[in-house]
Write a structure and sequence with these properties.
The protein has 78 residues and is mainly α. The protein has 3 helices and no strands. It is flat.
């Protein structure tokens, strides 16, 4: 945690941040943690694990569709 705090401090001092975007993501993360805590007590552990796994796969698919064309373009040359 100390490492993260030091890194954040360095970035705050050297890199301009889009504060509305930062605060939006922070708010969504806080709301998501409360929502997750509410569902954690109501849903079976297996369901939570599968749902999280599907979510991770979807995020991976989005990242791949964004990055693969750039990588293939770089490999093919100009």
């Amino acid at each position: 945690m100390l490492n993260s705090a030091i890194g954040l401090t360095g970035h705050l001092l050297s890199t301009p941040l889009d504060w509305p975007l930062v605060l939006t993501f922070t708010g969504i993360a806080i709301a998501g943690s409360f929502l997750g805590a509410a569902f954690a007590g109501r849903l079976p552990e297996r369901t939570l694990q599968r749902t999280f796994g599907v979510f991770i796969l979807l995020i991976a698919a989005v990242v791949l569709t964004q990055e693969v064309p750039a990588v293939l373009g770089a490999v093919g040359g100009p």
